[in-house]
User: What shape does this take?
Amino acid sequence: MVDPVIDLDRQYGIWSGRVWGLIVNLTANTLALYGLVGFLRDGTHIVPLVLGALVTIACVLLLAQPSR
Assistant: This one.
């Protein structure tokens, strides 16, 4: 039987899945903040704001698994 949960402790290249997830989370946070600044300034950049927020939430839910 296949385990549907992603193994965050497995090595993917030079880092583990957890480290890669944190890098994606940092990038999504940057995108969300960029979108927020544009939205507060002149009402634009809605797409980066929403996309960054959704990816951040997905990363937090995925990375909240305790390590073994």
